[in-house]
Specification:
Radius of gyration: 20 Å
Order of helices and strands: HHEEEHEEHEHEHEHEHEHEEEEH
Helix content: 25-40%
Structural class: alpha+beta
Mean pLDDT: 91
Number of strands: 14
Length: about 350
């Protein structure tokens, strides 16, 4: 693989607040250890224990990373989440100052049931770069690769967009595939997609993994559509800034109380938020490690000597995308996952 391009040097006397090294190469150690810890719970039917194992392992290693980080997208507010809560400071306190979004185990139910595509995920950007969704827990989203990015518009009827995608690809609409969460709130869209003639790949959870699949060139999926979590939307935006493609989202209040709270806080509920609105700046980092096998990453696999992991490591500033396969020693795994 070609070496990562050198970063441009700052002008003499200039103040540089952005990270001057590829922090994703350090963050992948964090997602690896979280994946290894949670993978021991695959198929055990206990999503809470799987998630807690990932959180504990991720939090332990984050303090070894040279940064002054604030969790912007985390496990919730402090009273509900003893670790990796929104507002928590992590890292060893040294420069650079950064925002962090974490999902120690994206797909807790997938892990508990032994289903595909569970990931451990972390994203990072300059301080103040990450969008704060405020009281809105859900967001309507569309994501696609670079060649289809100009067609993403949440105001256009979905069947019309599917027709434009087919035209852009030079295919019939029956060859267009949409990936979406299998949720009752998507019943109307499901009917529209089927009536238009396009295909659907339903997923039970894990729309970060699904978005990565949708933005990848020559993927079996053309479009991610649906209403999913805003935290996952911000994390995905960081990934898309690195890997390419586009994500467009709009805040989706669950009820009138949430809608009123968002309006009172000054949010524009009609605004279409693209990747550069959700994560501003030019230096975003993303790392993800597979917990269970999926379309994007291989999951944790055990052997007599230890385990193997596969990860994606990306930086937007350089456009570098690495796929990292690692072997982990069994004796060290005991310390991380409590294996006996």
């Amino acid at each position: 693989m070609a070496p990562e391009p050198e970063e441009p040097s700052p002008a003499a006397g200039a103040t540089v607040d952005a990270p001057d090294r590829n922090l994703a190469l350090e963050l992948v150690r964090v997602t690896e250890v979280a994946a290894l810890a949670s993978a021991r719970w695959v198929g055990h039917g206990d999503k809470e224990s799987a998630d807690q194992a990932a959180v504990d392992a991720m939090r332990l290693l984050l303090d070894t990373v040279s940064m002054d980080g604030i969790v912007v997208i985390g496990e919730g507010e402090k009273d509900e989440a003893p670790m990796l809560y929104n507002g928590e400071r992590i890292g060893n306190g040294s420069a650079p100052e950064v925002d962090i979004a974490v999902d120690p185990l994206e797909g807790t139910s997938l892990t508990a049931k032994g289903f595909p595509s569970a990931l451990s995920v972390i994203a990072l950007a300059e301080r103040g770069a990450m969008f704060d969704p405020g009281p809105c827990f859900y967001m309507q989203k569309m994501a696609a690769s670079d060649e289809l990015a100009h067609l993403l518009d949440l105001d256009r009827p979905l069947p019309e967009t599917l027709g434009l995608i087919a035209k852009e690809k030079g295919t019939d609409v029956r060859d267009v595939t949409v990936v979406m969460l299998d949720r009752p709130r998507h019943e109307k869209a499901t009917r529209e997609i089927r009536e238009a003639g396009a295909r659907i790949r339903f997923i039970s959870d894990g729309d970060v993994s699904a978005a990565l699949l949708a933005v990848t060139e020559r993927s079996p999926v053309d479009l991610l559509w649906g209403i999913g979590g805003t935290p996952e939307g911000v994390i995905t935006a960081a990934a898309v800034k690195c890997i390419g493609g586009q994500l467009v989202g709009r805040l989706w209040p669950r009820d009138e109380d949430e809608r009123r709270a968002a309006l009172d806080a000054g949010y524009d509920l009609e605004e279409q938020l693209d990747r550069d609105r959700l994560v501003t700046g030019h230096d975003a980092f993303f790392a993800a490690t597979g917990v269970t096998d999926g379309d994007v990453l291989q999951g944790v696999r055990y052997s007599s000597s230890g385990a193997t992991t596969e990860s994606l490591v990306m930086r937007s500033r350089s456009g570098t995308v690495r796929r990292v396969k690692a072997e982990h020693d069994r004796s060290k795994l005991r310390e991380l996952s409590g294996e006996r």
